[in-house]
Amino acid sequence: GAGVSQSPSNKVTEKGKDVELRCDPISGHTALYWYRQRLGQGLEFLIYFQGNSAPDKSGLPSDRFSAERTGESVSTLTIQRTQQEDSAVYLCASSIQSGQLYEQYFGPGTRLTVT
Amino acid sequence: DQQVKQNSPSLSVQEGRISILNCDYTNSMFDYFLWYKKYPAEGPTFLISISSIKDKNEDGRFTVFLNKSAKHLSLHIVPSQPGDSAVYFCAVLYNQGGKLIFGQGTELSVKP
Predict the structure, then answer these.
(1) 115 residues of chain A, pLDDT tens digit each
(2) B41–A108 CB contact, under 8 Å
(3) Would the N or C end of chain B have less CB density within 10 A of its end CB?
C-alpha cells in the first residue's frame, strides 16, 4: 500500500502569511504525528493524534501553530503569521499502535521557506 | 536539555568494514528505542528497534545493542555498503504510543 504522503513538497511564503500543510497517513494507522527539522538540527516533536483522544500538543512552539485531524485520516498543520524561524522541513508520521508495534513511518516532508 | 544525544555528527567508514553509531539517553524510564535512516530530501525510514527487556536485536546487517545501566545504545552495520551512506537518527519512545525524542543525527559516509 501507499506510504505517508505530504503536500505541498515545497512551500515558499512571505513573512506574516498563513500556510497550511497536509498529511495523508497510511491507511489503518490510528496514530499521526507532526515533527519539524530545522537546518542542521534533529527532529523536533510538534503534535500527536491518537484516535478520538485529545491530541498531545506539548511540542507546538507557539499559539501560531495548530493542527487538525479528520477521524483517522488526513491531517493539516496550520502556521499563522509565519516568521523566518518557522523555516524548516515539516514531517508527518503515522503508526499502527497495535500490541508492541511502535514504529512510526514518515512522509517525505514539506520544506517551508519563509522569506 | 537534550534527552537523547548522538555525540558524533559524522562517521566515515570503508566499504566492507563495520560501522558503529552511538547514542546516549538521560532518562532510565525510557523503554523503547529506535533507529532511523534519512537520505537527503526524504523522510526518515525506520530501520530497527529494541525494547528494554532485550539487550540485542538483529536484522540482517543491522544490529542494535542496548546497555541500560550505561543508558547507551549502538547500531552496528556490517558489512557497510556505499548505499548505507545517510544520516542516522536514534530515537526513544517518550511513553507507550507517544512521541519520539530524536538525537541530532550522525552522518555516515561509506567509501568504496
Answers:
(1) 589 999 999 999 999 999 999 999 999 888 999 999 998 888 999 999 988 888 999 999 999 999 999 887 899 999 999 999 999 999 999 988 665 667 889 999 999 999 9
(2) yes
(3) N
Assign A86 to helix, strand or coil. helix
The answer to whether the CB atoms of B46 and A48 lie below 8 A apart is no
Separation between Cα atoms, residue A69 and residue A79, nearest integer Å: 15
What cell does B34 get? 529506535
Q: Enter the DSSP assignment of B66.
A: E
The alpha carbon of residue A100 and the mean position of all alpha carbons in its chain are separated, in whole angstroms, by 24
How far is the C-alpha of A109 from the C-alpha of B38, rounded, in Å?
A: 12
Q: Which residues of A6-31 are buried (b: 16+ CB within 10 A; e: fewer)?
A: beeeebebeeeeebebebbbbeebbb
Note whether A67 contacts B: Cβ–Cβ < 8 A: no
3-class secondary-structure state, position B43: coil
